[in-house]
Amino acid sequence: SSGIGKATAVRLAEAGASIMLADPDEQAIRQTAKHIRSRGGKVAFAGANAGDVSDATRLVAETIQTFGRLDLMVNISGMCPPAPVLSMSEEVWDSALDSNLRAIFFFCQSAAREMTRGGRGGKIINVTSFEALHPVMQLAHYKASKGGLVMLTRALATELAPHHILVNAVAPGIIR
């Protein structure tokens, strides 16, 4: 509903894609949907908690119900409050791994299950970070999650290729 996610949704809608937005921030997601509609795009939205596996299954089902199919999934999550290694809590560590890696796996899995129906295939794009391979102070949890996402994307690409599902990652750097 903001940043790279919003820009990606807007651009895909401009290119003719029907968009299902998912974000726990309902106010922001409504604003993004309104923005896409004001430009003539087709959009629906659902609240989703990146750490809740059941939301992945529900969101894919809502996408199929709303638009009839799922051809492309873009996973963009960037939970990243700075935390020094020596005082980082288990809660902060788990939150970063849950939203930036664990949940993305289950969203990919749910999308891939749908994309394999009838041998259609599809595309999955995971947004990692240029920072995944460049350590920075107070972001060990973020770096671990985004580095893990790079390897997860490679593993998914290998395993899902026979099903005609193309899995890639993009790694943007710092943005405004």
In brief:
Helix content is 49%, strand content 14%.
The largest pleated sheet is described as: 3 strands, parallel
Helix/strand structural class: alpha/beta
- Bin the strand percentage: 5-15%
Lateral strand order in the biggest sheet: 3-4-5
The overall pLDDT average reads 93
Shape: globular
Q: Number of DSSP strands?
A: 5
Helix proportion range: 40-55%
Helical segment tally?
5
Quaternary structure type: single chain
Rg (CA only): 16 Å
The H-and-E topology, N to C, reads as HEHEHEHEHE
First-to-last CA distance:
15 Å
Low-confidence stretches: none
Describe how the helices and strands are arranged.
Blueprint: H1 3-14, E1 19-22, H2 26-38, E2 43-46, H3 53-67, E3 72-76, H4 90-115, E4 122-127, H5 140-160, E5 165-170
Parallel strand pairs: 1-2, 3-4, 4-5
Helix pairs in contact: 3-4, 4-5
Structure, explained:
- The longest helix has 26 residues, at 90-115.
- The protein is of the alpha/beta class and 176 residues long.
- The chain has 5 helices and 5 strands; from the N terminus they run αβαβαβαβαβ.
- The chain has a 3-stranded parallel sheet, with helices on one face.
- The two termini are 15 Å apart.
- α5 (140-160) links the parallel β4 and β5 (165-170).
- Helix content is 49%, strand content 14%.
- It is globular and about 50 Å long.
- It has helices at residues 3-14, 26-38, 53-67, 90-115, 140-160; strands spanning 19-22, 43-46, 72-76, 122-127, 165-170.
